[in-house]
Amino acid sequence: QVQLAESGGGLVQPGGSLRLSCAASGSFFSITAMGWYRQTPGNSRELVATISSGGSTNYADSVKGRFTISRDTAKNTVYLQMNSPKPEDTAVYYCYGRIVIVTGYYDYWGQGTQVTVSS
Questions:
Q1: pLDDT tens digit string along 17-75?
Q2: How far is CA 48 from the centre of its chain?
């Protein structure tokens, strides 16, 4: 069984910094892509950033220049460095992974971690 476990959420002041981590565990062959999405009450889950197995990245316009996604392939871990967060970045952040197992590739999600940006 594949699991994604997030860590690093919490309260951060506007203009500060915070780093989220997400580690994949379980039995799988490979991870083709990982990323972060976020959701606020009453809204759909939205993309924050993704990174491919080759290192190509994609960001939401709202976080470009402030957030950086990276991954440690050896540790099956993806990170989101959040610099200069704004109150509107407050949300539950979900880790995402497209993971290859014996029967094919599937999308997996973490349980979510709350990020609150407030002074």
A1: 999 999 999 999 999 999 999 999 999 999 999 999 999 999 999 999 999 999 999 99
A2: 7
* Rounded Cα gap, residues 91 and 99, in angstroms: 25
pLDDT for 59 equals 98
Alpha-carbon gap, residue 41 to 80, rounded angstroms = 21
Q: Are 90 and 116 in contact (CB under 8 A)?
A: yes
Q: Which residues contact 30 (CB under 8 A, 6 or more apart)?
A: 53, 99, 100
Please classify residue 13 by burial: count the beta carbons closer than 10 Å to its beta carbon, then call 0-12 exposed, 13-18 middle and 19+ buried.
exposed
The pLDDT assigned to 18 comes to: 97
Which residues make Cβ contacts (< 8 Å) with residue 16, sequence separation at least 6? 84, 85
Question: 89 in helix, strand or coil?
Answer: helix
